[in-house]
Amino acid sequence: MFSELFERTFDNCSALHFPSVREWKLADPGRKVIAYFPVYAPVELIHAAGMLPVGLSGAGDRLDIQHADARFGSFICSIVKTTLEMGLAGHLEPFDGFLFSTICDSARNLCFVMKRNFPQMYVDFLHLPHNPSSPAAAQFLAEEYRRILTELERLGGEVDDGALHRSIALYNGNRALIRELYQLRSRSPQQVPTSELYQLIRLGNFLPVEQHTALLEATLAEFQSRNTKPRDSIRIVVEGSFCEQPPLTLIRLVEDAGCYIVDDDFVIGQSWFESDVPTEGDPLLTLAKSYLDRSVYSSVRHDFRKPRWDGLVDKVRRNQAGAVLFLIAKFCEPAYFDYVPYKQELDRAGIPHLQLEFEEKSFTFDRLRTEIETFVESLVFD
Amino acid sequence: MKTAMDEKKEYRGSIHQRQKDLMLAWYDQLDQAANSGNPPTVSMMISGNCVELLEGFGAVPLYPEVNALQLAIRHQSLDPILAAEDLGYAADNCAYVKADIGCILKGITPTGAKLPTPTLILCNFVGCNTYLKWFEHLAKLQQAPLYVIDVPFMRADEPSRSDIEYVVKQLQETVKKLEQLSGRKFDYDRFRQAVARSSRTEELWSQIKHLARRSPSPFDAYFDAITLMGPLYVYRARPEGVEFFEAALAELQAKADAHKGVYEQEHFRLVMEGPPPYPYFRAFRDMFAKWQACAVASTYSTVGGLWEFGFRHDPDHPFESVAMHMIAQNVTNRNFLQRYEQIRRYVEEWNADGVIIHFVKSCRLFSAGQGDMRDYFTKQLGIPTLYIESDLEDPRYFAEAQTKNRIDAFFEAMEYSKATASVRSYREGSA
Amino acid sequence: MRIAAGVDVGSTQTKAVIMSDNGGVKIAARALVDTGANVQRAAERAFDACCQEAGVHSGDVGFVVGTGYGRYKIAFGNVQMTEITCHAKGASFLCPGIRTVIDMGGQDSKAISVGPNGEVVDFVMNDKCAAGTGRFLENSAEVMGISLDEVGPLSLKAQHPVKIATVCTVFVESDILSYLAQGKTGEDILGGVHIAIAKRTLSLARRLTIEPEIAMTGGVARNVGMVRALEAVIGRKMLVSPDAQFIGAVGAALFALEKLDQSFESSIWRGEHAAPGGH
Fold first, then answer.
1. Predicted ipTM?
2. Does the A28-160 domain belong in CATH 1.10.287.3510?
């Protein structure tokens, strides 16, 4: 019953005409909505300006690409094309702005192609720092956030520090709940199926944070109250540099094949900070410093002070996982690159792993199912 | 009937040989550094490179991209690519990276000269995310220290004060880092002199680029420019660089003044977008030579710096101008729409007949969205545009017959429209 | 009376057309042979058969233009030109008033924007993969155990065309088998296959500005199911000439005739000879 509720809510929110977004706008005309492309966005800025931040992750299998592949050819990931296709097909009409950031070369070019094709929309590019070792980085990022905020203020009205602190506090609360849910799943995965948790987290991309937090609280209670018997599944970490999202069926398939997903980076932008962002001081500076020093490791973030492959090994050990499943979106260059050092370090640490490719629009999974089942068998009968 | 096949198809003057000598001398220096540990060497990316800073230490640049392209030109890129794929790199990873990493795995180098483990792996991040991953992997593989100069992307028309300050501070941090690692003190005067020399080299290169506005152009601004580019990123700030470009300009100026073009008759003037298929450089050039089509401008030749629109390094503001170059004056850190504008300017001011967009599988920075670029030029501006595809480094992705077919069809159409236009004007003239 | 010929050497079939200009340009004869392994021989056979059909001597033919994938091997040809240029020319002649040509061949597909005189204004090609080409249909037919001639008419009978996710000819085979196992009818599967190819082709053509009238050419134009599917996704009827297969050869012959006519000087004839050492 619970999973049905999720699916209905989830389908409703992510449907191509974005009914939940339209409803939100209708409830108070004049309110604005800002879309952001994965992985991380400083949603507090958007929220503080009285606007709704919506995380877009392509159109999955809901949209046939009819125009976008004339603009983006072969060897480009699907999410870039479905995002453009949504725009060209008119589905992005409820959005007033679109925020991109430095995640990869294809997405960056997409930002400017969108700018050209939707000149009436506010389209911006956020430069997130790739040298957090520099003492100058915090100042730079704070000023970059100031620049974005000024543009948002043009659309939504003036924002003062108080508003920013309140937004930060709200999102801190949201992130804390997500951390709790993830910890619960790691302790007792039988109570928290990933196919449910995944939808719950992704709803955070569409719902106002206040609503999402309430939903998280309710669901956490529900999960805690469950009495499910644990199965004899292997504990795995899923790593995929996710920007393009896997079909829900694929996640179910992994669980049905005998895995408990005890940690993942599916929608990692939702829980980007490892601990609360301070709510005193210059809010833009605290957000900037948090980005530099408090962020989780990710393929789209570069910090040569601590290699992200160490982060993966830590994650496996912390969650007492037995293996890693790499789920890589077809043509995702950052994921392909990171796979090499990830693989090397996992081999060194003696942690088994499997690499699979997927596309957001896949709807047949026979091959993938076979591979995962074979992998699980090889681990169980070791 | 004499055909284009009989035409001399390559520019070869004395500076072509001089360019080769300079590049070999550079590999010699690297070989020396590998054997003796001196001078210090710094790995960098070509785009937005800060070679002037290295001059302040007497350090020599190492360019993994140049290694990659040298391998491809010598038809040696496939083996290292395969070695990298064995290690786990994907078919769809940038083949430049695979070739370079593969070389290190196999212990080979393009010229046979030894390459040193760099004193510092300096990733000048200018837009290309692949650069970041590449240098992270090199640091891991070569066990050398890594520093990333984070250069803010051109998301507005001009860099902000904040952008410039951020880069300047990181340049100063790089100086401190290099002092620690090399044991040498940064010589600020040498640095300033290097910046002054760059300024001079850039002026010469800009004048060379502007010679292509003449009709006929004395050189091909794609194929020949790429050949001449090497000294620009290795020797830009050195006396040899200045001398080289002085000689190059003199030679090309003489050709231009004598109305000598690349071909007997310059039939078509083109703007080229995208890197070349290095493993098939010559064959690719022949496909355009057949039609006596000369490139008068190219975006790829501005990877190492965009000098034709007036920007120069400034020895009076050395750190700031180095930062400016890294942020705004190289093609990779400029946004996609700015590239459209760059090409449009070339078509207009260099008086070109059409645009060739060469999509390369490896490079998403150049290629992702080139379909939209094509849309802009054909539908919005009505400029004849040809879209072809292959790869810059991997020899497995070049379909010779299909590429030739597309190029021939493009020029057949252009030739027809030129012929009918001239017949029309002849008829109108004689009416 | 001037007589000229065009020879189009395709990867599977070679076509020859002789055109005459005697008070109006018209097609005097056409011939078609399988290309086989020897491209040169195929060109000769097609040309000879065409001359016979026209009742002329090969020596009477004033000029020969070769086109198609094997155009460099036509020893008796005077000049060669790309099939893109020849298709535009031929389609304009056979379907007057067209501004867009969609060509679906055995190995590749293309879309051409055509000017008022049959000149190429712009073109896009899919020459790297089988999606959207005759090869895709052949593979599908083989997997289903049906002859290629049947696929078109069968697809028209689809009641609920299936969803085909991929246009990769390698993966679609397993999708088709999967649907067959699920009990889907051949008609529905083929309906889905045709729609998928049509959408893919339209996607390619959209890189141009698609202007009416639209002509469909190439071997796949004989597939009535493909014509209907493409018309359905474009939302417009297309012109399909009964001579759809010969369009490249017709265009080549027209260029050959123009050369004889000498009514305009074009340096287009500076181009490569058809074969090394050709006259």
1. 0.96
2. no
